[in-house]
Amino acid sequence: MYMFQHLLYETLGYSILETIGIGNQALIYAGNDNVLKEIYEKYHGISFLTKHFQKDSEKLIAVLDGKYTKEQRNEDIEKLET
Question: What gap in Å lies between CA 25 and CA 69, rounded to an integer?
Answer without folding.
Answer: 11
